[in-house]
Amino acid sequence: MLRVEGLSRRFGGVYALENVSLNVEPGELRGIIGPNGAGKSTLFNLITGHLRANSGNVFFRDEAIDSLGAHARAQRGIAVVYQGARIFRGMTVLENVMVGAHRRTRHGFIEAALRSPRSRREDEAVRLLSAALLTLVGLGGLGDRPAESLPLGQQRSLQLARALAAEPTLLLLDEPASGLREAERHHFAELIRSLRASGLTIVLVEHDVPLVTTLSDRITVLDLGRVIAEGTPAEVREDPAVIGAYLGSPRAS
Ligand SMILES: Nc1ncnc2c1ncn2[C@@H]1O[C@H](COP(=O)(O)OP(=O)(O)OP(=O)(O)O)[C@@H](O)[C@H]1O
Ligand SMILES: [Mg+2]
User: Whole-prediction pTM value?
Assistant: First the structure.
């Protein structure tokens, strides 16, 4: 589904990421963890196209996507929630989700401006889909609220609904649980789990190791820009290199 081959990225003379490869299978939930500065966000941003690699490639369903823009990626079924992403203020909760669904609508700008019957039918379909997604993420009945009035945990659920509105097959999440309180975190984990159960492929970059451990099928561990371990949560947890990286003990390079 997603294949990263030999990705490297330097900032100045320093490698933020060096020769990283990984392979995510369809339906898999892949966690990416690592200590501060390990290169998680750099890897994430290279996968999403937000950053350009110095070398290496990213393939989605065997197509190199390195040079594709955001829209082309979305059309292929890749949805992204960036670290610190915001909801759209000044819009309702429902409108926030509908923005994410516009990719589905086939009508063009002129037709929309003329409000043709077809564009009106599609608007209605988008509205129904968006309302259904709000229910799915636990925000049913809140569609008419101003989006900024939601507490942080619900804003994260809203971002998820907005990403899902584009009907992705691959969902990329950077630190989706950061700043959430314990109960919110628990709810969010349940939501991610249910999305995975529905067959969505998910790449989850997260600081919270226990959270990633409970959710992931496989985990890739980065440290100092390199992959230091990969495997099931149980395998990774036992790995001396991982334990060393997190404890900051001396390690061979
Ligand atoms: N735009 C940039 N300019 C210069 N250096 C950068 C830039 N982005 C990242 N780096 C450096 O690259 C390394 C990896 O950073 P990155 O943000 O990918 O780590 P991270 O694993 O996401 O860390 P965190 O857990 O703090 O989010 C760090 O040493 C960081 O200082
Ligand atoms: Mg980061």
Answer: 0.89
